[in-house]
Write a structure and sequence with these properties.
Keywords: Chromatin regulator, Metal-binding, Methyltransferase, Nucleus, Repeat, S-adenosyl-L-methionine, Transcription, Transcription regulation, Transferase, Zinc, Zinc-finger
Low-confidence stretches: 1-24, 26-34, 82-90
EC number: 2.1.1.364
Distance between the termini: 153 Å
Catalytic activity: L-lysyl(4)-[histone H3] + S-adenosyl-L-methionine = N(6)-methyl-L-lysyl(4)-[histone H3] + S-adenosyl-L-homocysteine + H(+)
Structural class: alpha+beta
CATH architecture of the domain at 188-296: 2-Layer Sandwich
CATH topology of the domain at 188-296: Herpes Virus-1
Subcellular location: Nucleus
Largest sheet: 6 strands, antiparallel
Radius of gyration: 61 Å
Shape: flat
Strand order of the largest sheet: 14-15-16-17-18-19
CATH class of the domain at 188-296: Alpha Beta
Mean pLDDT: 75
Strand content: 15-25%
Protein name: [histone H3]-lysine(4) N-methyltransferase
Number of helices: 6
Helix content: 10-25%
Length: 400
């Protein structure tokens, strides 16, 4: 008997006649499955397996019944697109929350909208930025000088010295005491022994003119003329600023001319209210501050000689921050040792000066300078007087 080899689904099976005899004997003992309702086809070959001895027909396998799928859940009904809705479920059902972006409804109207559609930029959002500026009502009031001084005093950075006694020096022109405002009469200038004039009172006098070096000429001449002239505004003597209009006799003090609203010009002329032009003028001067070096031209030799001749005096002689208290004297036997090629060193000389402190950077103190005699030679003494500290005395044989 010959062996037969069948090939099915890439599997090779060896059949023999003996095997077929055995399978035919056992075929009766194995129960057969019911035939499938499919239409029978003419069998081409019967495949029998040697490992598990089966009579199953490969082409006639029974068909399994399809599983019935459970009924599908009803579809979720969404709310309208123009409003966000929440689907509330019962306790036994699934709870689903849906948020939808509202859409604009198309407006159906008889009139067609002629506006072009607005351009949309992807990924960008535009926001309107509004700026609101609140301006308080009323005008801003700048702080006065007293408030600024008080503020600097609190900070501790002020260089203002301690308050000094009231200044009783009077201007020979306007008769006002002390230094005036910077944009007004300005500071006092020394004219002669215990004679003082305000800078602008002297500068705006008709006879006075200023040199290139800053010296005021003819101040004494203007002062003598002012003793006989009466001011048109305050009716007091000492007026020296006259109207520049020809044959006009109106004359004022400098401070009274400002109060009377006279017009000042840059060429140092003035017009009274009767003759000044209406409105503003391009050459009009409205600011009177003088920050340059200005002094009164005088004969200092004659002035010092008058101080020495008076002996005991009741007047104060000051040059800048230096105040003279006593001139001193020299005896004939002292002349050889108490002088140099540039200066004299009289015994008894005494003067004081206000200068910066050696202890504090933002304070001033008083330095009392004097000349004494020791072993036939001059001795220079400086006494430092500062509030809150003991007096410090410095001495040397030379003024340096």
């Amino acid at each position: 008997m010959k062996d037969i080899v069948f090939c099915s689904n890439n599997c090779f099976v060896l059949y023999s006649a003996a095997v077929q005899a055995k399978t035919s004997e056992n075929k009766e003992s194995v129960p057969t499955l019911p035939q499938s309702p499919m239409k029978e086809r003419p069998p081409k070959a019967f495949h029998q397996y040697s490992n598990n001895i089966s009579t199953l027909d490969v082409h006639c396998l029974p068909q399994l019944q399809e599983k019935v799928s459970p009924p599908s859940s009803p579809p979720i009904m969404f709310p309208p697109a123009f409003e966000a809705a929440k689907v509330e479920a019962k306790p036994d059902e699934l709870k689903v929350t849906v948020k939808l972006k509202p859409r604009l409804k198309a407006i159906h109207s008889s009139l067609e909208d002629c506006r072009p559609p607005s351009k949309k930029w992807k990924g960008m959002k535009w926001k309107k930025w509004s700026i609101q500026i609140v301006i308080p009502k009323g005008s801003f009031k700048p702080p006065c000088e007293e408030e600024i001084d008080e503020f600097l005093k609190k900070l501790g950075t002020t260089i203002k010295p301690d308050p000094v006694p009231k200044d009783y020096r009077k201007c020979c022109f306007c008769h006002e005491e002390g230094d005036g405002l910077t944009d007004g009469p300005a500071r006092l200038l020394n004219l002669d022994l215990d004679l003082w004039v305000h800078l602008n009172c002297a500068l705006w006098s008709t006879e006075v003119y200023e040199t290139q070096a800053g010296a005021l000429i003819n101040v004494e001449l203007a002062l003598r003329r002012g003793l006989q002239m009466k001011c048109m505004f305050c009716h007091k003597m000492g007026a020296t600023s006259g109207c520049h209009r020809l044959r006009c006799t109106n004359i004022y003090h400098f401070t009274c001319a400002i109060k009377a609203q006279c017009m000042f010009f840059k060429d140092k002329t003035m017009l009274c209210p009767m003759h000044k032009p209406k409105g503003t003028h391009e050459q009009e001067l409205s600011y009177f501050a003088v920050f340059r070096r200005v002094y009164v031209q005088r004969d200092e030799v004659r002035q010092i000689a008058s101080i020495v001749q008076r002996g005991e005096r009741d007047h104060t002689f000051r040059v800048g921050s230096l105040i003279f208290h006593a001139v001193g004297q020299l005896l004939p036997q002292q002349m050889q040792a108490f002088h140099s090629s540039k200066a004299l060193f009289p015994v008894g000389y005494e003067a004081s000066r206000l200068y910066w402190s050696m202890r504090y950077a933002n304070r001033r103190c008083r330095y009392l300078c004097s000349i004494e005699e020791k072993d036939g030679l001059p001795l220079f003494v400086i006494k430092v007087v500062e509030q809150g500290h003991e007096d410090l005395v410095l001495t040397d044989t030379t003024p340096k």
